[in-house]
Design brief:
15% helix, 11 helices, Beta-galactosidase, Chain A, domain 5, 10-stranded antiparallel sheet, 9-stranded antiparallel sheet, single chain, alpha+beta, TIM Barrel
């Protein structure tokens, strides 16, 4: 191994020594036997893994990793598989042991292949054969100088970093700068249509990382490891490392979705389905309950309005945020704020319960304000400490809430609780068990990075319980305590911290920043002296961030947890109607729940109707069609849902333009939606209630600045068919439960479901040379140029359902076949 390559490998961790022998380079101390080479070189579909001189060589379809090296850091020494004794355990599936006699350690590697997805999964277990504990560091499962076959000089290469957290996560150019991701990277060659995924499909115990570097001269270089951070493996015991995966193919979307399937299976994650989406109200966008109105009054007023104006739409939660805490201080969870809620928590809960609404609270579970001197003293031992182990680690320099007067010194630092400490666990159990007794059934668990240990970037001393591995395992110890105390009927929303690492404990996860949220009129917020930020769309609470992260994380939805990419739905004036429609579309296409940010008492009917058009909320998230195909950086514009109903299927495509000054035209290849490019499709645009016409092969959409167009594509069979509705953004998935075309009687009939008292319209296409025999109650319009009919069927939901029945006749004569009334 040359010096530069050795330095690269050693850079993975301080104290690593020696280097790895390349498969084609220097001779190892223990050569692989022919039988070992045969086993690991056995062909399984398009995948091939072979070993030469105790280093691996991978081949998959067009991809080759010719120098796959591995190493294990043990007490500041790097143990090289190249210098180990290899033992074949199994030919099928390929399985080999590397023995390190000097350290009395055995490292077992087992390869698994998924032929359907052309995916390699590499399992790994470390066994301590000695009589004393051994401190483990990094387990380097992949180090390679080059990936062959992926690209040529001049190709357009992009990648998506799969990183845990709510920062702006978007597809980026694969340039020469080294970069790191927490979990995996998804790489795509736009010119050659080659997709490569490398990273980890388990990540809930040891911290994982994958680094990559690219240059036209050297190609793609990869380094992937999990970090045990000095955790001691007991004598005679074994421990798994995190599990690595490599997938090769043409479709990056399929690889992302396949990764999520594998991660859910291998991490044993079974997210709660929540048949009824936990939609609710939080207010805050226009209701300033810090200055303009008492919190208790504002909540109960809006709760009553929800039952009057949104009856039947499933708004069943109220999330109260921070105002219940005395002085607004994190950590003082059970000390009630009687200034904001003078009648106490029982009165608030009971008043909401009478309205059929469940109480929810905000909680930064691992935070402790230094202003709470008695609690700091009580929990001193349980606080994360600074690296010298003496003073508490400062998670947040100053807490910005709780100001009672302009002169109060309230901006105190916030400390963080160590989730591995028994005092922390006891404290969390007491808080959330008490909250459960109070009737709380929803939480926004915020600032989770405070308890994330080494998953966060704040230096601190070691955690308390040394039987736990630093990072994910410590973090999840605290999450488990919260989950157990809350009960399975309580919805937990994670925010401001790790995302992937909450899988199995949190019901839903904010995948991006606080989209749509308002703030009190207070100095310190960039919305001051207002409560809401209108523009620009790139603002941290605006649609660009929300849409970008919705796209980057769509593959985890309802596999690891529910993606909460809509956060808060705010649509009232003074937002322009086009901005309100953008917000509503993001929520409706997200597949996740929403909290309403508007004042439901005073919102005008036209804007209230926009909220209704997003409800009920479908479960599936839209697929970002152009996630990997855009040349310029930024948010994906095109989102697709395939909707299957008992009466047939159709497709919905949302095309966004979040530019502020210019219109943009998008051409969507119908093949990219999985549609037959040789067939014609009807196109109905939702927000304009417009029949665009028929398209074949390609959908061309002109979108004005800061606007979205939502198109329903229905195959043209030459028969009458539903074009769309104006009741829900998905135009049929949530409100139409029956539709049938009787070719003999020439009748198109159907039924829609909406809350009692609602109204809406179904739009129907009538083919040329057909008329409506029962025109009473319908609105009939003819496209004179093309000869087809557009029929509006108005519906009134007096009993929660409404039916339509349109009878057609052939235009073989000038008058309808039935006499007029």
């Amino acid at each position: 191994m040359d010096d530069m390559r050795r330095r690269d490998f050693l850079a993975l961790g301080t104290g690593l020594v020696a280097g790895l022998t390349q498969a084609s380079g220097l001779e190892a101390s223990a050569k692989a036997t022919p039988s070992t080479q045969a086993a690991l070189g056995q062909r399984t579909g398009r995948l091939r893994l072979e070993m030469m001189n105790n280093a691996f060589r991978y081949r998959g379809d067009w991809c080759e990793i010719p120098d796959w090296s591995m190493g294990l850091e043990v007490e500041n020494e790097l143990l090289q598989t190249a210098a180990a004794k290899a033992k074949l355990l199994s030919e099928e599936p390929p399985q080999v042991e590397f023995h390190f006699p000097a350290r009395q350690l055995t490292w077992e590697i087992r390869a698994e292949t998924e032929l359907a997805s052309n995916r390699l999964i590499l399992h790994s277990t470390i066994r301590n054969d000695s009589q004393h504990p051994i401190a483990l560091g990094k387990a380097v499962l992949l180090y390679s100088d080059r990936v062959s076959g992926f690209c040529r000089p001049g190709d357009d290469l992009v990648y998506l970093p799969m990183t845990s957290g709510q920062g702006l996560n978007q597809v980026r150019s694969l340039n020469a700068k080294p970069a790191a991701s927490d979990i995996a990277i998804q790489v795509f060659n736009q010119n050659q249509k080659k997709a490569l995924q490398v990273g980890f499909v388990t990540f809930l115990r040891a911290k994982t990382q994958i680094k990559h570097e690219y240059s036209p001269a050297k190609g793609l270089q990869l380094k992937a490891w999990c970090e045990f951070d000095g955790w001691e493996l007991p004598p005679g015991a074994s421990t798994p490392t995190e599990t690595l995966t490599v997938a090769v193919g043409e479709n990056p979307h399929a690889q992302l979705e396949g990764w999520a399937d594998a991660a859910a299976r291998l991490c044993h994650v079974r997210p709660r389905n929540w048949e009824e989406q936990p939609n609710g109200w939080v207010g805050g966008s226009w209701v300033d309950m810090g200055y303009a109105e008492r919190y208790e009054d504002g909540i109960l007023r809006n709760a009553r309005s929800i039952r009057q104006r949104l009856a039947g739409f499933g708004i069943n939660y109220i999330w109260e945020s921070i105002g219940n805490l005395k002085d607004g201080q994190p950590g003082d969870w059970l000390d009630w704020n009687y200034k904001n809620f003078p009648n106490g928590h029982k009165y608030l809960h009971d008043a909401l319960e009478q309205l059929g609404i469940k109480l929810g609270l905000w909680c930064g579970a691992f935070m402790l304000s230094s202003k709470l001197e008695d609690k700091v003293k009580e929990l001193w031992d349980a606080l994360f400490k600074q690296p010298d182990g003496k003073q508490p680690m400062i998670y947040m320099p100053a807490w910005g809430y709780g100001l009672d007067s302009a002169t109060e010194d309230f901006r105190k630092p916030v400390y963080a609780l160590d989730p591995s400490h028994p005092k922390t666990l006891e404290f969390l159990r007491k808080v959330f068990q008490t909250y459960r007794e109070w009737g709380v059934r929803y939480y926004m668990i915020d600032f989770l990075a405070a308890g994330a240990d080494t998953l966060s970037n704040i230096p601190h001393a070691k955690h308390f319980d040394k039987t736990l591995v630093s990072g994910p395992e410590v973090f999840q110890k605290g999450l488990q305590a919260i989950r157990d105390a809350c009960g399975d009927d309580t919805h937990l929303l994670a925010s401001s911290g790790q995302t992937y690492h909450t899988a199995g404990f949190m019901d839903s996860v904010r995948t991006g920043n606080d989209f749509g949220e308002g703030r009190n009129i207070a100095i310190g917020f960039d919305t001051y002296p207002a409560t809401y930020a209108l523009k620009p769309p790139t603002h941290w609470s605006g649609p660009v961030h929300a849409l970008t992260n919705q796209a980057a994380n769509y593959h985890t939805h309802r596999k690891l947890y529910i993606n909460n990419s809509g956060d808060v739905l705010t649509i009232d004036k003074p937002l322009q109607v086009n901005q309100a429609q953008v917000n509503a579309t993001i929520h409706a296409m997200s597949g996740g729940p929403s909290m309403l940010g508007d004042d439901i008492t005073y919102i005008e009917e036209d804007r209230l109707s926009l909220i209704k058009k997003t409800l009920p909320r479908p479960k599936d998230v839209a697929v970002p069609v152009d996630l990997f195909t855009r040349k310029e950086q930024g948010y994906p514009r095109v989102y697709h849902r395939r909707i299957s109903k008992s009466f047939g299927s159709y497709d919905v495509v949302a095309v966004y333009n979040l530019e502020t000054t210019r219109s943009v035209r998008h051409d969507v290849d119908l093949k990219s939606l999985g549609l037959d490019a040789s067939r014609p499709y009807h196109v109905w645009e939702f927000w304009n209630s417009e029949y665009v016409g028929k398209v074949q092969g390609r959908l061309s959409v002109e979108v004005s600045a800061l606007t979205v167009k939502v198109c329903r594509l229905t195959e043209d069979t030459g028969q009458p068919v539903i074009l769309g509705t104006d009741m829900h953004v998905l135009m049929g998935e949530m409100e139409i439960d029956q539709c049938e075309w009787d070719a003999t009687e020439k009748v198109l009939s159907g039924r829609a479901l909406r809350p009692v008292g609602e109204r809406g319209n179904v739009y129907i296409y009538g083919p040329p040379r057909m008329g409506v025999a029962n025109p009473k109650g319908f609105y009939l319009a003819k496209d004179v140029e093309n000869g087809w009919l557009i029929i509006r069927c108005p519906l009134r939901f007096e009993e929660g359902w409404a039916e339509w029945n349109v009878k057609f006749f052939d235009l073989t004569f000038s008058a309808p076949p039935f006499p007029p009334f």
